[in-house]
Amino acid sequence: MNNYKTIRKVVSAFKVNMGGEILQQPLPHPEIEQIDPFLLIQHGDFHAPGGGRPQDMGVGGHPHRGFSPVTFIYKGSVHHRDSIGNDSVVGAGGTQWMHAGRGIIHSERPSKELASQGGPNEFVQVWINTPAAHKMDAPHYQAMPSTETPRVELDKANVAVVAGEFAGVTGIARTFTPQTLLRFDLEAGADLSFPIPASYNCLIYLLDGGMQVNGRAVTGREMVQFAPEGTDIRLVAEQPTRALLLSGEPIGEPVVSYGPFVMNRKSELMTAIQDSQTGKMGRLVEKF
């Protein structure tokens, strides 16, 4: 017998201007501040014109502390460089997972090929909070190309398991709290049901397409927030649909943030700002 999760809200992403680039943002939203441990979701969908240089595109070196920025690449590629020596390009279908820990400087730019040749570049970036006990751990970076991401092939459905477990397949992302993160590529007519632990907070964001989520119609650029009640989720695609499911055990700790820093107390934010300004989060030298 199914025990479907209750849908609490469905909201539409709204446009935000990030350094001159327009992104779709479903979280935080005027109606939803956060869905612990998920703090922010931004969806970028661009077309590189070609003939450019990567150093003139994307986002240059900037600091983070206290959480994990996670980038799901859907089209094109993202070139990650950071102050602890990582230099990694991940293409469509892959994921970049960076735990900022006590502090890191990184840049996010298109690959040299994408900048020069042009083409679509689409990604979703999610900020995932880190519990206080690990906010000041050493930073680390994990590249998960599409070819190394575990997948489940179902009738009219391809499910990439980034973290947690789905249909007996376990993702490879290293998380500090229990999480299940899934990427769905659904053909029209796909019909699948699966459980999510009742203790998890859970959301689904549709990049495009349309489907029934536990009987409710949802379309592209909308986010579904589930209430704690129930465990089961049923997705029925009414057209080709790409969707991202984020679920996890809530951390339940105070959250204070300022720009790229996410801590538990204001005093910790002040320290983060000072450490960033005095070079204690490292130094990034980009080589092109």
Descriptive labels:
2 helices; seven-stranded antiparallel sheet; 288 residues; mainly beta
Q: Quick one: overall form?
A: globular
**Distance between the terminal alpha carbons, to the nearest Å?**
57 Å
Helix run count:
2
Largest sheet: 7 strands, antiparallel
Stretches with pLDDT under 50, minimum 5 residues: none
The total count of strands amounts to 26
Radius of gyration, whole Å: 19 Å
Q: For the largest beta sheet, what order do the strands appear in spatially?
A: 1-22-19-24-17-14-13
> Given the helix and strand composition, which structural class is it?
mainly beta
Could you estimate the helical fraction of the residues in percent? Answer: under 10%
- If you average the pLDDT, what whole number results? 97
What does this structure look like?
This protein has 288 residues and is mainly beta. The protein is built from two helices and 26 strands.
